[in-house]
Amino acid sequence: MSAANGRILRLVKNGPEREALESGQVDAVLDHASGTALLLPEAERALSSPAGEAANHLLAALPRRDYERLLAELELVALTYGEVLYEPGARIRYVYFPNDAIVSLLVVVEHKALEVTLVGREGLVGIPLALGADLAPVRALVQGTGSALRMKAASFREELERCVPLQREIYRYAYAKLVQARQTAACNRFHQVDQRLARWLLITHDRVRGNRVHLTHEFLADMLGVRRVGVTTAAAELQRQGLIEYHRGDIRILDRRRLETAACSCYRLDEAFAG
Ligand SMILES: [Zn+2]
């Protein structure tokens, strides 16, 4: 929970810590087993953003009154790198509005995974629910540790029926994702691996703070639908041009402007829909 580090004074696990929380001795209790964070209201507000606004763009776009009503249904959770939120075919129990967490959605075909999209603070995980489906079509895997607000599936559906602004935001986002999925199908077919790598690095960079991105070789291979050696060659080329520094999955963006030039034209479309 990188956003929380500066604000939560002490992190404790369970047991008597609950009392400590209630008596105001600590600001937060993190339960690592369930990935749940219990926060004092002040800490929760501080976590959302310095101004008390929602960090998630879909929630931030809602009228204040709707946002505040929704908050009662939303639970702040810590998502950890590698955690699986849904498996394909499983019932969707929660929708997630990421703050600084990043979740990748992967199509799983015969035990191989292909990245279809990344979800960060611009979106939500759980679109199928909004479109009338109960089961997850893809695997949702936490790609970047951070926080998110989650809501029970039933509450989300109720809110969607009563809250037109929420509906509008969710449908706008679902449409953007549809456009992006089509574009990615064409991108995978027509654009070079180093252009596509540059595109996904930019998409990831847009969803993190700072210039560092952590993406393993294996994940990049899934993301680009190529073998690992293809990733090595493409990353080496971007590094040779001085655009990135790459070491064991730690990627530092050295020249954002030139990386945008190196990316295929699909990135401009991603950007237009990023919200
Ligand atoms: Zn492309």
What does this structure look like?
With 275 residues, the protein is of the alpha+beta class. Among the domains are: 80-176, Jelly Rolls (Sandwich); 191-273, Arc Repressor Mutant, subunit A. Helices cover 42% and strands 23% of the residues. The protein has 12 helices and 13 strands. It has helices at residues 17-22, 41-48, 57-60, 64-71, 127-130, 153-162, 164-190, 193-205, 217-224, 228-240, 256-262, 266-273, and strands spanning 11-12, 28-31, 36-39, 75-79, 84-86, 94-98, 102-109, 112-119, 139-144, 146-152, 212-214, 244-247, 250-253. Strands 5-9-7-8 form a 4-stranded antiparallel sheet. A 3-stranded mixed sheet has the order 1-2-3. β7 and β8 form a beta hairpin. The radius of gyration is 19 Å and the shape is globular. Residues 1-13 have low confidence and may be disordered. Zinc ion (ZN) is lined by residues 187, 191, 196, 199, 264, 266.
Explain briefly what this protein structure is.
With 275 residues, this protein is an alpha+beta fold.
Features:
275 residues, alpha+beta, Jelly Rolls, Arc Repressor Mutant, subunit A, 4-stranded antiparallel beta sheet, 3-stranded mixed beta sheet, disordered N terminus, binds zinc ion
